[in-house]
Amino acid sequence: MGSGHMPIGRRELAKQAKRERIMTAARELFTEHGVGGVTTQQIADRADVAIGTLYLYASTKAELLIMVQNEKFAAAIDVGLAAADAVDKQGVLEPVVALIRPVVECVREHVENGRTYLHELVFGDPVEPYRHEGLALAGRLEDGITGLLTHDDHIEAADAATQARVITAIIHLSTTATVYLHRSDEAVIADIRDQIHATLAPHHRAA
Fold it and tell me: Hey, what CATH class is 60-206 in?
């Protein structure tokens, strides 16, 4: 008997190869020049595809950026979840910081790209497939923070999800606000840590 898997046809393989070339070209050009310094035609040229072909995979430059950043965002969440799991669980602050550290570094790797990515996720069409995927990743991060907060005996389970939303808002503001752009990653993470500590403190004082 067969394995039950249908072999991938030549057309599908060709489509996958083109998508990968487009992704690679967009990733390289966005890293080199920032999203504002790149055109879709430049991406198509580097990927060696016609501009019409590129638009079959992403209809705008913003969608191309979201495609690229989604991959980075997903990888950062994976790294953060593993790091949080490895931290001594005496308290939730340090595991939460361990989770968000690679996410902050991902967003700030190229500040223009990171800021544009988050802006597109928040203000773009949520049903557009790549934005929908990005929002699902944001939800995964929030769920990860929620799970860590439930280990704190002073935080009610019903409050953990709300607290996680507050923390993700802190991350968003601290990584995108113009006033913070000159800071190093370590300074931003330290400031986020202090803000998270302050949001958790009332729960401990009330206990």
Answer: mainly alpha
